[in-house]
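Section 3.1: Structural characterization of target chains.
Under the original work plan, the team committed to producing a structural model for every single-chain target entering the pipeline before any wet-lab resources were allocated. The record below documents one such target. The sequence was received from the expression subgroup and is listed exactly as submitted; it comprises 316 residues.
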Amino acid sequence: MISTERVEVLSLSFMSFRETGPWWQKLRTIIGVALAALLLAGCGSFLRLGYGQGPHLAYWWADGYLDLDGEQSLRLREALDEWFDWHRRSQLPDYAALLARAQREVMQPATPQAMCAWRDEAQRRLDTAIERAAPAVARLLVTLKPEQLQHMERKLAKNGDELREDFAQPDREARAQAAFKRTLERYETFYGRLDDTQRTRLAQLLAASAFDADRWLAERERRNADMMRTLADARASGDVARAQAAVRVLVERAQRSPRADYRAYQERLALDNCTLAATMHNLATPEQRAHARRKLRGWEEDLRTLAAEVNATAQR
């Protein structure tokens, strides 16, 4: 779900995998690059533009949640510049290599297990990016004021209202139609236009999915309440090491619920998504797979261009 819920918990929460599109939403939006920045980017030249503006976009997102003061803003901008410099130098070439591999595999049939393996590949790289950001997040956290956490809580509540409008319409038919429209748009962006048979099969798979919007939103509310308590405790401690540990706990809980029943639901949902992605891929025609390969090649070229830009700058 590339929307506000994807960047909550300081860009660390990924909720359910229900709205997964082909190739795991562009390898989890190119491995969750740049905190909020690439969540706002699309493909082609806009991906390069979005990443190039990454520090600014990430700062803009954080300030929207926390209403930062002057000193906090300065420190965060410095931390973002450092993170992006590290990320561009050390991570983008690896992402590009992964996309090159995907171009070879996209022309072949897929299995649910293979799709799950791609998800895991993306998640490991995302974990690396998050771990690099954790110390800076912790340093910011201990400087927050109670009113800034209250501002964040109100922002999360507003986001929740928007998500309920988008994903949990009271009318079940309207809810199903909205889910189909969102998913269809992502598949057609990747594969090109789907024919009637493919659209019918997609609708059937979505109807059979384990995804429950009401359950997801209820879990989101519980997780946000737990997050606000954890952040408040870490802030009050004034201890950066404790705050960093709290950030890691929140990341873990965002990806794997501490509640056994919801973990089981997440696992069923993940398998559903792997099955959906494999089924739709196997229904794709050779022309549609070629379209997907061109998309992957374009993303790879974008990332290699971005990585080359920093190398060229370093050699001057």
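Residues 4-310 form one domain.
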